[in-house]
Amino acid sequence: MYKDLADEQLVELAAGDEPEAFGEIVRRWERKIFALCFGMLTREDEARDAAQETFIAAYRNAARFRGEAKVSSWLHRIAVNQCLTVKRRAKTRSEDFLDDESSESDRVFVAPLRYSPGSEAEQSERLRVVRQAVGSLPVDLRQVVVMKEFEEMTFQEISDTLELPLSTVKSRLYTALKQLKSKLDRLPVEVI
Amino acid sequence: MKGLGTNNSCSHGGDMLAYLYSEMAGEEREVFEVHLADCGTCIDDFAELSQSRYPVYEWKRTQFDPLPTPRVVIPFETPGSISLLDQIRRAFSFRPTLAFGGLGAAMITVVIAGYLILSSTSGDTEVAREVEPSASPTRALVVPSTPSVDATTQERIEVAVRNERPTVVRASTSAKSPAPKPKSARQPKRDDSIPVMSSIEEEDDDSLRLADIFEEIGTSE
Hints:
- By secondary structure, chain A is mainly α.
- In chain A, 71% of the residues lie in helices and 0% in strands.
- Chain B is mainly α.
- Chain B is 57% helix and 0% strand.
């Protein structure tokens, strides 16, 4: 029903009498917002919480959306602010933890949340597409991606290994991620 | 990102990847976060990078991390595990010790051979030096003919020497003459009119003489 509508129309409907329209917004952007949160927080459980909070905040503020910016930018800003809030909270907790060791159990035994945005088949298909997209990158770009993501090397280590300037390494990774984004955006939302 | 982004002229852009991959120091990170909260361009750029990074991370976490670390086994060779083919290969393989040993042996052989050759050459030279002062063997064997002795006398001397031998030998000048004829055919009849030089000549000398020529001419006439 809402699949053919633009993001701005969906937000407008959600701000009006059709809150269900926001469900389509969540379906389209949940994974991307989650990825953004993961990029900022680097922990999956915190990123899931932050993504959840982002969409709740967006829904509550849908009436304030004026359409001056794209919905994506609007959501990104909410997500970044939400992540910064999470980080500030974590920092405060960490300082409290140093003052009061009794709160140790609250941090250590936090069970990771099992976030399942899609079925197992969808995930398998998604990973296949990602593999294909990474494999289609030029060798010099793919090399940096693999060294960074799979070997978990620092930029300086990659620079030393490849005997390339640090700026070149960052430039290649930046270009690689941009090309990956372009390749993955061509795929259906259900996959990505 | 500084110098990298196409849609970003933000001065804080250079820190984007360092922040994304948590390679930014604490204070610097806080400064960047303050900027990120207010910069829409950086937010969108960071979101794009995060959205393309996470699938790769998920791929690694889901399909790569569960893979068992391959057990690396280095095949250290033991003497019993060497196959026959490997033993043959090893026997013919290059060994520095054997190579240098062989080279040394070859050099020693060459030195010894050279010494022997040089010593034998110096011995010949000494013999030659010993022989050099005397006349050559050929020259020593040649008996110079006495100028005062004429050919006939010389021939007679030779005939006299030959008569001491049982066989008949022609004079040195007969080398150019044809093979000797049978004695019966060549022996002329004794003619008393021809003066006989000596009894020796008459009996045994079969050399060509003027008397024979005269006799042959007379017979033919």
